[in-house]
Amino acid sequence: MPSIGYHASHEQFPPRDLLRWVRRAEQAGFDAAMCSDHFHPWSGEQGQSGHAWSWLGAAMATTALPFGVVNAPVGRYHPAVIAQAAATLAQMFEGRFWIAAGSGEALNETITGETWPAKDLRNRRLFEAVQVMRALWRGEEVTHRGSITVERARLYTRPEQAPPIFAAALSPETARWVGGWADGLITISMPRDKLCAVLDAFRESAGDKPVRLQVKLAYAASEEDALAGAHRQWRTNVFEGALSEELRTPADFEAAAAFVRPEDVRRAVRVSADVQRHLAWLQEDLELGFDQLLLHNVHPAQEAFIDAFGERVLPALRSG
Fold first, then answer.
1. Cβ(188)–Cβ(213) under 8 Å?
2. Which residue range is the domain that position 10 belongs to?
3. CATH number of the domain residue 121 falls in
4. pTM value?
5. Residue limits of the Luciferase-like domain (predicted)?
6. Closest CA to 129 of 82, 65, 185, 66
7. Cα–Cα distance between 35 and 7 in angstroms, integer?
8. Is residue 38 among the annotated active site residues?
9. Coil, strand, or helix at residue 3?
């Protein structure tokens, strides 16, 4: 039976609201959840920046759902600190926590004033960070001097089972590289040919490791409302990684998105007021072999989305 989760977007919505909505999602039949981990939103229109790790403890304590978090364990964070935070959640909520690790975006990681590295160095320090975290979860004392530095660190509170590390990848090149060391892949919805290329590349090096998909969608009461809301909230998120990973402030993203039209947002977001259309898209995703779909409605109508999909989409997906 496929797993269908709810994505909590900290850059878009206040943490108090997200806590209420993730509980509502569980009651509606969603069986998993994940959240973003931002310091800045992508735009002033989104306008939020709740701390993911503070929120995760509350969310996991008040639901029974497994949770993931999209996180760069380098940059504004240090991997030993992320290893400690993840170990604490995994120890309190055994078997319910996982990380989607990525190399980060300048939007969040440059707030410390450090130089923003080139992509190859960002990948290198991500790989080193993952090795450091896994060693700490094994109970080792870790000293590491490379693109990141760790001096005699040891975790004393550890879960019985280390949390899985899924790698976030948006291109075949990155997917092929992470397949050798990640526990699984998470990517985002994109045109089918591009999505298949990412999946095929990952499977070349990863075999049958699990694959998860974060689905970007816009659902509202009408097609016009769905498209308008997607444009207001997500027009800053239609760019390729070569640009989106380099821009440093919400104002930079707003300037880049000044000429993005509502119709342009459809390239990155599945826009429809018809739940049957969304159902058909999701069924196509499952046919590609994804183990879990994590649904992110970029439109503010979160409660309507949760209720409609819980009643009409989730049962149909699970019935085959």
1. yes
2. 3-318
3. 3.20.20.30
4. 0.96
5. 8-291
6. 82
7. 5
8. yes
9. strand
Give the chain's domain count: 1
Which residues in 173-203 are b (16+ Cβ under 10 Å) and which e? ebbbbbbeebbbbbbbbbeeeebebbbebbb
Tokens standing for residue 278: 């969304």
Among the listed residues 105, 109, 128, 245, the single catalytic one is 105
If you ran DSSP here, which 8-state letter would residue 164 be given?
P
* Tens digits of pLDDT across the chain (320 residues): 889 999 999 999 999 999 999 999 999 999 999 999 999 999 999 999 999 999 999 999 999 999 999 999 999 999 999 999 999 999 999 999 999 999 999 999 999 999 999 999 999 999 999 999 999 999 999 999 999 999 999 999 999 999 999 999 999 999 999 999 999 999 999 999 999 999 999 999 999 999 999 999 999 999 999 999 999 999 999 998 778 899 999 999 999 999 999 999 999 999 999 999 999 999 999 999 999 999 999 999 999 999 999 999 999 999 87
**Helices in 138-188 by DSSP H: which ranges?**
172-178
Active site includes 278?
no
Give the Cα separation of 313 and 276 in Å (integer).
Answer: 8
* Extended beta strands in 56-204, E state: 67-71, 97-101, 142-145, 149-153, 165-168, 184-188
CA distance 108 to 104: 7
CA gap 90, 100 in Å, rounded: 14
Coil, helix or strand at residue 204: helix
Choosing from 38, 231, 278, 299, the catalytic residue is 38
The half-sphere exposure of 118 on its side-chain side, counting CA atoms within 13 A, is: 1
CA distance 144 to 92: 28
